[in-house]
Specification:
The structure is a single chain. The longest helix has 21 residues, at about 10-30. This protein has helices spanning about 1-5, 10-30, 50-55, 70-80, 95-100, 100-105, 130-140, and strands spanning about 35-40, 60-65, 85-90, 115-120, 145-150. It is globular and about 45 Å long. It has one domain (about 1-150): Vaccinia Virus protein VP39 (Rossmann fold), CATH 3.40.50. The protein has about 160 residues and is of the alpha/beta class. Strand 4 (about 115-120), helix 7 (about 130-140) and strand 5 form a beta-alpha-beta unit. Strands 3-2-1-4-5 form a five-stranded parallel sheet, with helices on both faces. The protein contains seven helices and five strands, in the order ααβαβαβααβαβ. It binds S-adenosylmethionine (SAM). The site of S-adenosylmethionine has 18 residues, from helix 2.
């Protein structure tokens, strides 16, 4: 179905993953040691964000966030076996819930720079939920020296089916 309406999807998906890898690595190279990856997805082709940033900073801490219980089950099983990695079930449309999540607050120190990444997730958040405002809510909590990484895989259509 997706290939029918968007035949370019496999290519743009791969390009998005490559961008995410480079962006996460770049942020780590600036000295950032803690990351929140929103709309993290099922770990498929490595590297995931933690693998990209730990190739620069092995002690980097990463919180993965997704609203899909299947994604969180897979991610939790594959990623959360290592210290400094957790996956939480939450919706990016509720930034306050995420920012105040006790597991996230146990791993992320908002007094220090943090890399917050939205790779191919804000493009599926409807305008009525104010995706720019969502990114802004995270940016407000981020200390100086923090980085926001955003990618959009598809042009945003007028309506979405999910
Ligand atoms: C296209 S995938 C991108 C996965 C990964 N970030 C990447 O770049 O490969 C979008 C992911 O965002 C998640 N997602 C969509 N809407 C979300 C929302 N409102 N809150 C949290 N996650 C969401 C989906 O479950 C899916 O795992």
């Amino acid at each position: 179905m997706l290939r029918t309406v968007a035949p370019e999807a496999p290519l743009t998906g791969r390009i998005n993953r490559e961008f995410g890898k480079r962006a996460a690595r770049f942020i780590a190279e600036q000295g950032v040691k803690q990351f929140i990856d929103l709309g993290s997805g099922i770990p498929t082709t490595p590297p995931s964000v933690h693998e990209a940033v730990r190739s620069v900073e092995p002690s980097a801490r990463v919180v993965y966030v997704d609203h899909d219980p299947v994604v969180v089950a897979h991610s939790g099983a594959l990623r959360s076996v290592e210290p400094g990695l957790i996956t939480i079930l939450a919706d990016v449309r509720e930034p306050g819930v995420i920012l105040d999540h006790p597991d996230l607050k146990a791993l992320i120190n908002f007094d220090e720079p943090v890399g917050v990444t939205f790779f191919s997730v804000l493009d599926v958040v409807e305008d009525s939920y104010d995706p720019v405002g969502i990114a802004g809510r995270f940016a407000e909590r981020m200390a100086p020296g923090s980085y926001l990484g955003i990618s959009h895989t598809f042009p945003r259509p007028a309506t979405r089916t999910r």
